[in-house]
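sorry for the late reply, my laptop died twice this morning and i had to redo everyting from scratch. anyway the thing you sent over, i finally got around to it. pasting the sequence first so we're on the same page, its 138 residues, then the predicted structure underneath. double check i copied it right bc i was rushing
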Amino acid sequence: MYQSFDNYTQWRIIDVMRKVKCLYLITLIVGLLSSCTYTASNMTHGGFYIAGIDFVYCTSEKTCLHETAHQIDARHGFISSSIEYQIAIRDYAVSNPGKLWSREILSYSGQWSEMYAQMYESVHGRVELFPVELQKYY
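ok and here's the structure:
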């Protein structure tokens, strides 16, 4: 019923299994690194998000809120990069001068994913505090 192997064959099977595990781990690590928007500055801020495995690492509440916003953005298909979101956020800023975030939005020149995360962080993750026209993006 069970096949018996000599010591050499058993050793070869174990060796092949180890190599397969190593290849799997290398593939996993490469996959993680290629899907991570990690930079050195992320660690000075205490966190990062890896989209490929939907993983958030953070060391403070503020950083957790910021990185969670990146996670939400990714789960919504990176909505912060969409023209729809960018038009909506600019329309809000133009229509509401002097209101929450308007000045920052109109003068912003960075990546929209960072603005998205900064806005979420600033309301402590409470979507109901967003202007009504922007709530659907979070």
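Residues 37-44 have pLDDT under 50 and may be disordered.
thats about all i looked at so far, will dig more tmrw
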